[in-house]
Amino acid sequence: MPEWIPVPGSAKARLIEAALHHFERAGFEGSNVTDIAAKASVTTGSLYHHFGSKLGLYTVVRTDLERRVTDRMEGAAESAGMSDAIPDTPGDATCRAAVRSAVLVAFDAAVRFDACRVLGEPPPHDDADPIEVTVRAMLSRDLEYAAGMLVAAWRSALLNVAGGATVAPVRSALEFVIHD
User: Fold this and answer.
1) Is the pLDDT of residue 85 over 70?
2) Is the Cβ–Cβ distance between 127 and 151 less than 8 Å?
3) Which of helix, strand or coil describes residue 92?
4) Torsion angle of C-alpha atoms 18, 24, 30, 36, degrees rounded to 10
5) What is the distance between the alpha carbons of residues 52 and 58, in angstroms, rounded to a whole number?
6) Are 149 and 103 in contact (CB under 8 A)?
7) Are 98 and 76 in contact, with CB atoms under 8 Å apart?
8) Dihedral over Cα of 45, 47, 48, 53: its sign
9) Model's pTM, two decimal places?
10) What is the pLDDT of residues 18-69, one digit of tens each?
């Protein structure tokens, strides 16, 4: 079993679940290890043992969510015909439809996972943003900078939902921004 998949009900699994709850409600900066550990019914020592730090725990939570979202994005793009498209053809309608589908599926997944704030916040590291990398792979070289803009709109939409906005109108606004 890969190390990042904790045994259900284990201290590590409870910490991940508690962390997602706290990071989603208060953000990374607003969460503290004492509250996360208490919600998981473990000591802070257990948190440090399994993850090394609050940032280590956040990175595990976020990396898992990003992987789950990018998997769905790739599936959505393929369903929209991306496997038959030629990304180096600027303005290719199939590529545009694939990107649109992928971004909307990513939004819906983040909402379903109750991870709008976690995924809406900028990544906590200088590594490549996996969401942006996924979108960029669907675009021609002439449009590669659009990936950052689309992901910024996606993150903004997620933060609006995390801030209490109703999902449907935020999704409609995102659809407007990434229209065909």
Assistant:
1) no
2) no
3) coil
4) 0
5) 11
6) no
7) yes
8) negative
9) 0.87
10) 999 999 999 999 999 999 999 999 999 999 999 999 999 999 999 999 999 9
- Quick one: which of 119, 134, 11, 146 has its CA closest to 65? 119
Query: Which amino acid appears at position 94 of this protein?
Result: T
CATH superfamily of 11-177: Tetracycline Repressor, domain 2 (1.10.357.10)
Q: Over the stretch 101-147, which tens digit does the pLDDT of each residue have?
A: 999 999 999 999 999 999 999 877 788 899 999 999 998 888 889 99
What's the farthest any 2 CA atoms get from each other in the chain?
55
- Which residue is associated with the tokens 């969510």? 65
Enter the DSSP assignment of 56.
H
For 124, the token pair is 């906590």
Q: What angle (nearest 5°) sits at the alpha carbon of residue 83, between those of residues 79 and 85?
A: 110
